[in-house]
Amino acid sequence: MSGNQTPGARVHLVGAVMVNLVGAIPRVQELFEQPVIVGGLAVMSRLGNAYRVTQDLDALRRRLEGAASSLEVLRAAGAKDINEIGGLVPTERGDVRVDLLEARHNDLDRDFTDPTDRLEAMAHQWTLDTATPMNIVATTIDLSSLRGDARPTIDQTEAVALVARPGPLVAMKLKASIDRTTVKEATDLLDVIRLVTDPATAGFVLAEFEEADAQLVEDVAAHAHLKFRTNVLRTRRIIRDLGPQAVDAEFIDGAADFLEGVLQRR
Questions:
Q1: pLDDT tens for residues 63-96?
Q2: Who is most buried in 87, 122, 202, 258, counting CB within 10 A?
Q3: CA–CA dist 84, 196 (Å, integer)
């Protein structure tokens, strides 16, 4: 199970996809200094109920002055199918899709004209500054190996990694929901809903936003209002279209009420 927020917590995920993703973490750590796990794997590790799987490994790195870009590092490591944010990285279990986000020490020094750009920069810095280590264990059981008295084949891997905390994940997911494909936007918003309603994370979202920068909170509030108030009918529809993992309109509205209350406490 997942959901323990204590630094160094041990979390358990299941499934062959999760085994491949967790198995790729040490390779990413070899290539980049102190990467922080973000995206779907981070959300599933933080939640008390890992309600979905994710197909790629997302990480955030602090790119130092003069350091090679993430794509240059991935290309040198033999990655294939490289696009603007990542590529297929060879690992012991095969190729794994790894997407890298970057933050620089001077990202917040410029004058922002777009609040979404500002939210991205501030959320990245908040994530890097507050991430805590987790021991992520992933297990899959292959029942097809059963023959006679034979036992099923168990494949398990684990990795200790810095993982984004619930509050920063909410900020990053709200920013990510802008200018995405419809399915990815819906998944991002559903992740936000789960983070603010799951008993394992809701209290931490509240506490972490109470300590967050006032400008960051203002920008998160504006993006949350856009998605869960102004465009709530669209948000309900695209989440409903996700199928079995979806939640109903009442649940979405309840999550929006809670998040709005959290952000207004400042």
A1: 998 899 999 999 999 999 999 999 999 998 899 9
A2: 122
A3: 31
Domains in the chain, number: 2
pLDDT tens digit sequence for 202-222 = 999 999 999 999 999 999 999
pTM, to two decimals: 0.93
Q: Pick the last residue of a domain from 111, 132, 164.
A: 164
Cα–Cα distance measured from residue 71 to residue 118, given in angstroms and rounded to the nearest whole number = 23
One domain for residues 205 and 222: yes
Order the strands of the 57-62 sheet from edge to edge.
Answer: 9-14, 132-142, 153-163, 36-38, 57-62, 94-103, 86-91
- Residue 138: domain span: 1-164
* Residue that terminates a domain, selected from 114, 149, 164: 164
Phi, psi of 77 (to 5 degrees): -85, 0
Task: Please state, for a pLDDT cut of 70, what percent of the chain lies above it.
Answer: 95
Mark whether 160 and 194 lie in a shared domain: no
